[in-house]
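Field notebook, page 246. I keep forgetting to write these up properly, so this time I am using the form the group agreed on. The chain and the ligand, zinc ion, are recorded exactly as supplied. Prediction of the bound pose follows.
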Amino acid sequence: MNVLFKIKSYAVTFLRFFYSLISGGETCLVCGKTSYLTPLCSNCRKLYFVSDALKVNRCKCCGKELISEKELCMECRDSPVLKSTDKMIPLFSYRLWNKELLFMWKIQGLRALSYFFAGLVSKALKELQIEYIVPVPPRPGKIKKNGWDQIDELCKILKFHYGFKLLSLLERTSSTQQKKLNREERLSTIQSAYVLSEKVYEVLPSELCIIDDVCTTGSTIETCAHIIKVNTTVKKVYAMTLFAVG
Ligand SMILES: [Zn+2]
Ligand SMILES: [Zn+2]
């Protein structure tokens, strides 16, 4: 699996590089210079300082950037949206060319970005000394239909390339899975599209980090964190996203 995955991604990278050479290369989204393989040139890629991103003053609960408040934003002080998530760690804000990058990655399938993003997440996880990662799972059938899922790929790179421990603890519910639940379980998960995976892990760590691409309201992450907290022995659930809205 490890080897196959690497061969496949090197082959894709090689083909893209070859194509970028004969087509004159891509232009950098930020500065407009030729960037060959990726949508950002090597200079602009350096704009993504993970250490600085981690130093931004953010709400401990929801991850929103704080201006004058300390530790918690006004909303989280009144009624925290995130109860099961111990810390929300978005890396960059979802604006300007970041929006475009996410679109190219997710919708246009520019998989060369997976390695770029995985590198950023890896740096941040290492700085925070987080070892275990849990991907937000794709809709059932998405990988079959599109050939890939961006979070799945990101987490696989984090595992095979950077050595993080990947725990696929969650699954998206399909209608067949819903049928297997009894009435009470069905009612309690009715708003939730996620369940604990049937995969059994003998030992679970005391803390782990959910990985997603963008955090909008935090409800997806909160649902996932809640399922993990209620059903496992995990004590702390963090969440890291590449981008945060607002
Ligand atoms: Zn550039
Ligand atoms: Zn907050």
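OBSERVATIONS:
- The mean pLDDT is 86.
- The beta strands are 26-27, 34-36, 87-93, 132-135, 165-166, 170-172, 194-196, 207-215, 236-244.
FOLLOW-UP: compare against the apo run.
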